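Blinded run. Sample ID left blank on purpose so nobody reads anything into the name before looking at the predicted structure. Input follows.
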Amino acid sequence: MNVDSVYVGEPSVLGYRRELPVLSGITKALVTAPELKLTELNLDGDRQADLTVHGGPDKAVYVYPAEHYAAWREDGFEVSTADFGENISLSGLTEDDVRIGDVWAWGDALVQVSQPRSPCFKLAMKTGRKDITPAMIDSGRSGWYLRVLRTGIVPTSGAVELVERADAPTVAEVYVISFANYGQLPPENVEAALDFADRVLATPALAGQWSVWIQSTVDRWRARRAG
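Blinded prediction complete.
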């Protein structure tokens, strides 16, 4: 896997909603320096606007596969690298290859895969396409977040080394089970889906936000099936 480029940005006005300005850190600029500092919360020069839903230790760095952009354009979306607000444009891996809890060495830093990305209305504002949110959910082209296990100086291009492969579901599997519509599954498949959700919930490295979300769905459907 290879870091193709790195992007950072400060919050700015993305647009207006109900006549009020919407602040967001989704707009990023290419880092031209050969390296920069990574803290437990951010790359140097990067910041989030709404810390109730963005940022924090489990969302320190957002990674997006560079390969996805061609697929988006084939689907009719006029998007370019960094339009999804990623910090790292990465080649060589997608959501199917990456497991929750995988640990990478990136320069002096150690980082760990913590969760997929859930799209919000700001992505639609950034791209000018309201349909990009359901398209991301349907396609699974979500990217993923990293938490920082060891801070350090990181390069803005070059190889990243896998140092620990987690025995855990992939980012793609977590994404599918999180957005699964159990009501549309054949009855005989619902219990299997719930059992797989239990496996996802047993993943220690999965960010708490996603665990709560998945657990609430599992509890609701198990209660419904119990009558």
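Unblinding after everyone has recorded impressions. The chain has a mean pLDDT of 95.
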